[in-house]
Design brief:
The complex is a heterodimer of chains A (about 240) and B (about 280).
Chain A (H helix, E strand, L loop, with lengths): L1 H10 L2 H4 L5 H33 L3 H13 L2 H12 L4 H24 L3 H9 L4 H31 L12 H9 L3 H30 L16 H9 L6
Helix pairs in contact in A: 1-10, 3-6, 3-8, 4-6, 5-6, 6-8, 7-8, 8-10, 9-10
Chain B lengths: L1 E9 L5 E10 L4 E6 L5 H8 L7 E6 L2 E2 L5 H6 L1 E4 L11 H5 L1 H5 L4 H14 L16 H14 L4 E5 L7 H18 L2 E6 L2 H7 L2 E6 L3 E6 L1 H6 L4 H7 L9 E4 L5 E4 L5 E5 L2 H6 L2
Helix pairs in contact in B: 5-6
The chains are: A mainly alpha (about 240), B alpha/beta (about 280).
The structure holds adenosine-5'-triphosphate and magnesium ion (MG).
Chain lengths: ~240, ~280
């Protein structure tokens, strides 16, 4: 209990936040890592997931691969990669991307699959090409689930990016591991609190984005659907747990 | 001219929707496919824009086998009004109507302008244009579907029970409107319905289908009503039951006046000479 009080007291000092090793700089590093890892994950997993959702091919393989990737212990993976790449940012990035990509992938194909097949059929029947169906119908209508995948991935990365310090990179892992090694529990606890706050902040940003999206009538959830066929959104919420929410 | 040459369709799950069906729809005429649920009407219709590939036989448009035509290009020049409106839920009504003109490269402004013209034709208030499909009633959605089918001014129109969800009054109004549009624009139309009166009103030729796409009878409305060729057809048209026995009567102008058992007029089939004139 005392430790928590002390941790909070430490967080409230200006000293804790200033300087090159201060919490502010570490938080920015941490956010930066998160953005880079999320960006790489998205660059790899989004196109792949959209392709799987659009063609319906390779879904089984994707389920197996994402399951396997999720089962990998991140710390072990990090150590393994670091053995080859040495100290620095590469190893943690590889580990974070492998951690986060499955969520992005699952969100992407679940999003595309959640679109009412009748709507896709109609779009094709009007003369949209496969690419137009994907970009003008499947992605916009699947966006809520696609974003859910990115949101989950971002949270996983933020929580795990502390491991970067384990192989000599920066981020909030630095003060955390320092506290761990020196038995400075207030330092450890205080840093953990910052990690949690950062996660809540990022989650809130995604949450706001998704809420704004839901304002568009065509993307509204079932509770707001006036009438007519809204099978799509009902299935979208049912599929959400599959995307990891 | 649209030609079905002995087409058949067996879906991957083994359902045979159509066995062997042949039909020629002359240019600028309306053919109505009439039949009860599940007899293969939608399947036949979707063969024309290659949304369904026939398992056997072929479909020709103006003598050209469409199995060699690129599907996307083919669909953009065929208007298709779907059985369940099939609107894009995330696009405004006006943009739904403008879909095909936009795909064909029209500017957004031009496409929307055309869209508003069509909304007027199908009897939709222009202020509904900025709504989303989910904010319309079923009947309004269907009319949007009709407007979308007409938007690119296609030569061929496929209409799958386009007025199924509108009330009888509006329905009759829309049928008249379609007949008027057809009189003016002379498109080649294949129209699916299971409403006999609608078939009699709109069809230059009517094909009555049994399960499996088997033709029970076909001919002009007059032929169909006068020759009670087939027990199935008579039953389907209600010619055998006292409750709804239709009768056809030639008027002085050569038109056919269709009446029910109580002598209430149901509709008028235009004079035969009219039809003969058509190319
Ligand atoms: N994609 C499909 N896969 C398997 N069977 C199908 C498919 N589409 C249609 N069928 C079957 O083919 C038959 C004909 O269907 P179709 O949709 O052409 O009927 P329809 O005459 O349009 O009926 P309705 O008046 O109810 O619209 C039905 O038995 C239907 O179950
Ligand atoms: Mg049908």
């Amino acid at each position: 209990m005392n430790n928590i009080v002390e941790a909070v007291r430490w967080l409230l000092t200006a000293d804790a936040w200033s300087g090159t090793g201060g919490l502010w700089v570490r938080s920015m590093e941490h956010l930066g890592y998160t953005l880079i890892a999320l960006g790489i994950s998205a660059a790899i997993a989004l196109p792949l997931g959209l392709l799987i959702g659009h063609t319906g091919k390779g879904r089984g393989a994707a389920v197996v691969a994402t399951g396997a990737a999720r089962a990998l212990p991140t710390l072990g993976l990090l150590t393994l990669v670091a053995l080859f790449t040495g100290i620095g940012l590469t190893a943690p990035m590889v580990a974070l991307v492998i951690l986060a990509a499955p969520s992005v992938l699952a969100g992407a194909y679940a999003g595309v699959e959640s679109v009412n097949p009748a709507t896709v059929d109609a779009a094709r029947a009007q003369g949209m090409s496969g690419w137009q169906v994907l970009t003008r119908v499947e992605i916009p209508l699947g966006l809520p689930l696609i974003l859910s995948g990115l949101r989950l991935a971002a949270l996983q990365i933020i929580a795990t990016a502390t491991l970067a310090a384990y192989v000599g990179a920066g981020g909030l892992g630095r003060p955390l591991f320092l506290g761990l090694r020196t038995y400075d529990y207030p330092l450890m606890l205080g840093t953990s609190i910052v990690v949690i706050l950062l996660a809540i902040l990022v989650d809130a940003v995604f949450g706001t984005g998704q809420r704004l999206l839901r304002r568009i009538p065509g993307l509204a959830g079932p509770q707001r659907a006036p009438r007519g066929q809204r099978r799509d959104s009902r299935r979208a919420t049912a599929a959400a747990p599959a995307a990891g929410r | 001219m649209i030609e079905f040459r002995q087409v058949g369709k067996t879906y991957p799950d083994g359902t045979t929707a159509v066995e062997e069906f042949s039909l020629t729809v002359p240019s600028r005429s309306t053919a109505v496919l009439l039949g009860s649920s599940g007899c293969g009407k939608t399947t036949l219709l979707r063969m024309v824009n290659r949304m369904v590939e026939p398992s056997t036989g072929s479909v020709l448009i103006d003598e050209e086998d469409i199995s060699g035509v690129e599907p996307v290009a083919l669909r953009r020049r065929i208007g298709y009004v779907m059985q369940h409106s099939g609107l894009l839920p995330h696009r405004r009504v006006i943009d739904n109507i403008a879909t095909v003109p936009r795909l064909n490269g029209a500017s957004r402004a031009d496409a929307r302008k055309r869209g508003y013209e069509l909304m007027e034709i199908v009897g939709l208030d222009a202020k509904l244009g900025l709504r989303y499909p989910g904010q319309l009633s079923g009947g309004q959605q269907q009319r949007v579907g009709v407007a979308r089918g007409l938007a690119a001014d296609p030569n061929i129109l496929l209409m799958d029970e386009p007025f199924g969800a509108v009330d009888p009054l509006v329905r009759v109004e829309l049928q008249r409107e379609l007949a008027r549009v057809q009189e003016e624009l002379k498109k080649t139309i294949i129209f699916v319905t299971h409403d006999i009166d609608e078939a009699l009103t709109l069809g230059d030729q009517i094909v009555v289908l049994k399960t499996g796409g088997a033709v029970a009878a076909s001919g002009t409305p007059a032929e169909l009503l006068s020759n009670r060729q087939d027990e199935f057809v008579s039953r389907f048209l209600g010619l055998d039951s006292g409750a709804r026995s239709l009768s056809a009567e030639k008027t002085d102008d050569g038109e056919l006046l269709i009446s029910d058992a109580q002598g209430r007029p149901l509709g008028v089939v235009p004079a035969q000479t009219d039809r003969a004139d058509r190319p």
